[in-house]
From TrEMBL:
Originating organism: Secundilactobacillus collinoides
GO cellular component, one term: plasma membrane
Compartments (UniProt record): Cell membrane
Transmembrane regions: 36-55, 76-95, 107-130, 142-165
One of the Pfam families matching this protein, by short name: MreD
Chief location: membrane
Membrane topology category: Multi-pass membrane protein
Example GO biological process: regulation of cell shape
Protein name, as recorded: Rod shape-determining protein MreD
Record-stated family: Belongs to the MreD family.
Amino acid sequence: MLRVTRLRYGFPIGLFLFFFLDGILGEAFPKQLFHYPYAMSSYLVVLWLVFAVFFEDPIKIPLGVWAAVAGGLFDLYYTGIFGIFVFVFPIVVILTRACYRAFPVNFLSGLLVYFIDITVVSVLSYFGNLYVHTTSASFTDLFVYSLAPTLAYNLAAYVILYFPIQRLYNYLKS
């Protein structure tokens, strides 16, 4: 149960801050992120959710609910198609919790788990978009032109933000 701590208010604030930061970075650096034929997708919301799974102990956050809410907002605000990320973000939380039980929580295992999570998000969103006919790219194009740059960008964000966010979570839990 989530006790009355700073984390109770800090987690949603951080989630929505990262939600808007995804869009701000995409708008501020369009030539760097979306240079044809490559396209990088910023998934800082997923990063915040993954960090929440890593650093939430002993306080339990209702991450499934928060992931679905963030996914719905992500769908409506960024894609315009409601329903893909509403399901993908909670799946990522479930996957991360399963990996959390299998691996010790440290920087390198977290990097591996985040690598898996971003791959899952990209592939599931590709199949969702393929299903509703909003993409015609091949699976090979996804891996070469979208997934590889997306992984590079998001893993760099993980490396840069891991220790500051770990300190932030420790502060919010105290």
